């Protein structure tokens, strides 16, 4: 077993241990004996039963797949665009989701449970469609990122305009929704995200050699028989669907897609297959623990998860940059 | 920008010091006692709901609330289970309330939907005008087993409100400016809670017709309105709250005549029985301004 394979197996063990440990954290006071009883046999305490099976386990599982999904989306985009700053959020996905959430908050305030994730998902997809359309019109797919930034600002300004003239409390709801949270998730959300994630992983695994060819440059990839624009578009579509699904249920969770692939490259290298597996595992571990911090660090309240991912992520990212500079 | 003004709206409406948690309350015992007396245990998810429940005599049945519920004094001892951004669902489940009273606009709707899905009995508070306070007082009193006291409080509230309206209905209208927030300068318009104070105290709001209920404006828009009185509510619990420096603009009649009124923001912005005292005091202060202006005019 080589070093990379050992690392990946080690990470898998860490994912499993993290998920199990995360179930023990939460504001409700449940002792470990009760927790184990509830997990392996019939729960004696109905309150503990609800907390464990309907609150904590869905949260941990959604953190696991959302962390995997965001990190994979970042890794795919960075490899297919050969841009280290590529991140699903740079394609206007969060701004689009924010616009969708705003419209839902203003017009469908009484049915937000269904309307909000649906509108956010449609908003995110709408943003990506505009970005791709612009890049197509310009006939320069390599300018996807710049188009994404422009669309992002455009959609954000529309959102702010609607909020300014809308119901005052809607602003609060949208702003805090965009900060991200796993508090609202349930098992059905896990099944949806996991399904999209599996489709994404299978597709990327099937096309990993073509994506690797892109790393050599567009011309080299084309000479190897890769339809560069088509592949890039397909990958963008997969990342958009994956991120939009996660954002719809969890709100904005920044920095995971940008940061995790960079960490993984240092551990397992740049080729797509290893990068995707490594990103999925580290992304899952990262988000599971960030959610533990979100729900356990304050005695009477939760911290929006996006605040922690951005705070921890940026510090850790700067540390990695400094370390790689020192090595070089 | 809008975030600031809206945060302030929420904070002003329900602001004050973050109360310390007092977990020592024997929740189980309280719950059993209240159930025995056919008085449900309650989680009240907004400061104004807590106040209303204390008004009808159901304060002791509250087993959990959110941040900023600081009135009356005993409310500071109620365990906290979240804030207006997010509730701690695990804590709510652990407390097993018979009834959850939530604020329609001010609580996270997804958390409330989840609680309803888990089988909790959630009812909503949604006061938009003064008369809604009396309606909700009656409703909450009935739900919590205090109908008699609720009826008394609601009746008294309605009578006093009618009396205030009658006292000021024929008064001369003067022009006023309501400073909801100073940076950015934010005021109120139709559809906002404070606009009612202006309507009853017979004050014309030059920004009443603006499309958004809490518009941000510039001093340039205030100057031509020639406002005769400025209402600058300040919260005693917000130490950093800094009012707009009106003294820099002596050309405004209200500033020249020193007619800047600074009422208690908490009492004004919280939709409870207390807001009637704030209304009464504000109308009286505005009436004094009216008298001063008339004397100057004569």
Rg calculated over all Cα atoms of chain B: 21 Å
| CATH architect. name of chain A | Orthogonal Bundle
Determine the fraction of residues in helical runs of chain B and give it as a percent range. 40-55%
The total of helices of chain B stands at 12
Radius of gyration of chain A: 20 Å
Would you give an account of this structure?
- The complex is a heterodimer of chains A (328) and B (298).
- Chain A is an all-alpha fold and 328 residues long.
- The model of chain A has no long low-confidence stretch (mean pLDDT 87).
- Chain A contains 14 helices and no strands.
- Chain A is globular.
- A 4-stranded parallel beta sheet of chain B has the order 2-1-3-4, with helices on both faces.
- The radius of gyration of chain B is 21 Å and the shape is elongated.
- With 298 residues, chain B is an alpha/beta fold.
- Chain A binds chain B through residues 26-29, 47, 50-51, 54-56, 109, 112-113, 116, 160, 163-169, 171-173, 175-176, 181, 183-184, 186, 295, 299-302, 304, and chain B through 2-3, 6-7, 9-10, 21, 67, 79-91, 93-94, 96, 105-106, 108-111, 113-114, 118, 211-214.
Name its key features.
heterodimer; A: 328 residues; mainly alpha; ABC transporter involved in vitamin B12 uptake, BtuC; 14 helices; globular; B: 298 residues; alpha/beta; Rossmann fold; 2 domains; four-stranded parallel sheet; 8 strands; 9% strand
């Amino acid at each position: 077993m080589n070093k990379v394979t050992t690392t990946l197996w080690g990470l898998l063990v860490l994912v499993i241990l993290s998920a199990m440990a995360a179930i023990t954290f939460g504001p409700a006071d449940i002792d470990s004996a009760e927790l184990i009883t509830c997990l392996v046999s019939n729960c004696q305490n109905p309150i503990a039963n609800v907390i464990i099976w309907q609150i904590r386990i869905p949260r941990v599982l959604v953190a696991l797949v959302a962390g995997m999904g965001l990190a994979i989306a970042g890794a795919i985009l960075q490899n297919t665009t050969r841009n280290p700053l590529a991140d699903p959020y740079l394609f206007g996905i969060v701004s689009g989701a924010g616009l969708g959430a705003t419209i839902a908050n203003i017009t469908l305030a009484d049915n937000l449970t269904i309307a909000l994730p649906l509108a956010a998902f449609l908003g995110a997809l709408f943003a990506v469609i505009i970005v791709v359309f612009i890049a197509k019109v310009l006939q320069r797919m390599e300018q996807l990122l710049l188009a994404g930034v422009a669309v992002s600002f455009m959609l954000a300004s529309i959102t702010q305009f609607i909020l300014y003239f809308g119901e005052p409390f809607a602003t609060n709801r949208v702003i805090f929704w965009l900060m991200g949270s796993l508090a609202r998730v349930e098992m059905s959300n896990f099944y949806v995200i996991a399904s999209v994630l599996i489709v994404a992983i299978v597709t990327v695994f099937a096309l990993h050699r073509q994506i690797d060819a892109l790393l050599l440059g567009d011309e080299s990839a084309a000479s190897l028989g890769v339809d560069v624009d088509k592949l890039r578009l397909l990958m963008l579509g997969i990342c958009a669907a994956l991120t939009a699904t996660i954002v719809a249920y969890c709100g904005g969770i920044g920095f995971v897609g940008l940061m995790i692939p960079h960490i993984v490259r240092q551990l397992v290298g740049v080729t797509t297959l290893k990068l995707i597996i490594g990103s999925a595992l580290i992304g899952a571990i990262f988000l599971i623990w960030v959610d533990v911090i979100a729900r356990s660090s304050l005695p009477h309240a939760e911290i929006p998860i996006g605040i922690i991912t951005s705070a921890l992520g940026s510090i850790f990212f700067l540390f990695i940059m400094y370390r790689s500079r020192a090595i070089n | 920008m809008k975030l600031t003004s809206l945060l302030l709206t929420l904070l002003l409406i329900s602001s004050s010091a973050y109360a310390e948690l007092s977990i020592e309350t024997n929740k189980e015992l309280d719950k059993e006692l209240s159930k025995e007396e056919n008085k449900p245990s309650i989680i009240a998810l907004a400061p104004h709901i807590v106040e209303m429940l204390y008004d009808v005599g159901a304060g002791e049945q509250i087993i959990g609330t959110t941040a900023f519920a600081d009135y009356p004094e005993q409310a500071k001892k109620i365990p906290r289970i979240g804030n207006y951004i997010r509730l701690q669902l695990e804590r709510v489940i652990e407390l097993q309330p018979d009834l959850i009273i939530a604020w329609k606009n001010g609580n996270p709707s997804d958390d409330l939907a989840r609680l309803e899905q888990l089988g909790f009995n959630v009812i909503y508070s949604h006061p938009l005008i003064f008369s809604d306070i009396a309606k909700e007082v009656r409703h909450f009193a009935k739900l919590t087993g205090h109908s008699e006291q609720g009826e008394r409080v609601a009746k008294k509230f309605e009578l006093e409100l009618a009396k205030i309206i009658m006292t000021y209905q024929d008064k001369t209208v003067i022009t006023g400016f309501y400073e909801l927030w100073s940076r950015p300068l934010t005021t109120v318009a139709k559809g906002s809670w404070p606009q009612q104070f202006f309507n009853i105290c017979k004050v014309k709001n030059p920004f009443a017709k603006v499309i958004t209920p809490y518009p941000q404006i510039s001093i340039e828009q205030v100057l031509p309105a020639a406002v005769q009185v400025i209402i600058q509510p300040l919260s005693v619990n917000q130490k950093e709250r800094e009012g707009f420096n009106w003294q820099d603009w002596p050309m405004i009649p209200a500033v020249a005549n020193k007619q800047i009124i600074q009422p208690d923001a908490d009492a004004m912005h919280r939709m409870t029985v207390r807001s009637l005292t704030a209304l009464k005091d504000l109308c009286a202060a505005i009436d004094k301004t009216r008298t001063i202006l008339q004397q100057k005019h004569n």
